[in-house]
């Protein structure tokens, strides 16, 4: 299941339960619309309620991150346990891993 919310210029995306092909499709559509049609630059992905990443999701999400970075976007990922931190790679100045939502506003601001 995919939930989205915009707060203070940041698109918050929460992925819950399990990731189906439909969830991947919805995520791609939402981010591409916000990135290309609305000019959204800041994204916060919440994985608090998700314990499993399929290979299909990992590949799709990495491609999505590349699209965001090519448009000079910035990303915060939170809700990932310590074992899986950096599972999506590392980048200086445009991708961050944090432990909770409150830290996001210290990193991303308009």
General description of the model:
- The termini are far apart.
- The chain has a 5-stranded mixed sheet, covered by helices on one side.
- The model has no long low-confidence stretch (mean pLDDT 87).
- Helix 2 (55-70) links the parallel strand 3 and strand 4 (74-78).
- The protein contains 3 helices and 5 strands, in the order ββαβαββα.
- It is an alpha/beta fold and 110 residues long.
- Helix 1 (21-37) packs parallel to helix 2 (55-70).
- The protein is globular, with a radius of gyration of 13 Å.
- It has a single domain (2-107), classed as Transcription Regulator spoIIAA.
- The protein has helices spanning 21-37, 55-70, 104-107; strands at 2-7, 10-15, 42-46, 74-78, 95-98.
- The longest helix has 17 residues, at 21-37.
Please give the structural blueprint.
Layout: E1 2-7, E2 10-15, H1 21-37, E3 42-46, H2 55-70, E4 74-78, E5 95-98, H3 104-107
Parallel strand pairs: 2-3, 3-4, 4-5
Antiparallel strand pairs: 1-2
